[in-house]
Amino acid sequence: MLYIANAFSLNMLPPHKASTIFVNPIDRDAARDILKKNDWSSAIGHPDIAAIVSADLGADIPVNRTTLKLGADDTLLVAQYIGPRLAPGTIALPDGASIQYFLITQM
């Protein structure tokens, strides 16, 4: 399964099991293509980030506050916000802010 989230945490990995994690930076176009070509589920828990990433990727990404545990065949697309703290209700990136995308897989 493909998940999209706004962060990655070691808590997402199986407990008490060694894992090799691959973190691959990708651009926005690659992130858009990945979403278009796969079934996916949102794990973005912040409404403002969900709105910004939805606009950036041209997809309706719902807010979904969940505890995500990645399985062996799961992939995580991380939309990492870089910038100042967002004011409540923000729907566009403030000046100097960006979203960087990463594809995370494990062995």
Name of the CATH first level: Alpha Beta
**Which regions are unreliable across 5 or more consecutive residues at pLDDT < 50?**
none
- Count of folded domains: 1
Average pLDDT for all residues: 93
For the sheet with most strands, the description reads: 5 strands, mixed
Order of helices and strands: EEHEHEE
Report how far the terminal alpha carbons are from each other. Answer: 15 Å
CATH superfamily: Uncharacterised protein PF08960, DUF1874
Fraction of helical residues: 10-25%
Q: Name the shape in a single word.
A: globular
Describe the protein in words:
- By secondary structure, this protein is α/β, with parallel strands linked by helices.
- It has a single domain (2-106), classed as Rossmann fold (3-Layer(aba) Sandwich), CATH 3.40.50.
- The protein has helices at 28-37, 47-57; strands at residues 2-5, 21-26, 40-42, 75-82, 98-106.
- A five-stranded mixed sheet has the order 2-5-4-1-3.
- The radius of gyration is 14 Å and the shape is globular.
- The two termini are 15 Å apart.
- The mean pLDDT is 93.
Topology, element by element:
Elements: E1 2-5, E2 21-26, H1 28-37, E3 40-42, H2 47-57, E4 75-82, E5 98-106
Parallel strand pairs: 1-3, 1-4
Antiparallel strand pairs: 2-5, 4-5
Quick summary of this structure?
Helix content is 20%, strand content 28%. The chain is built from 2 helices and 5 strands, in the order ββαβαββ. The longest helix has 11 residues, at 47-57.
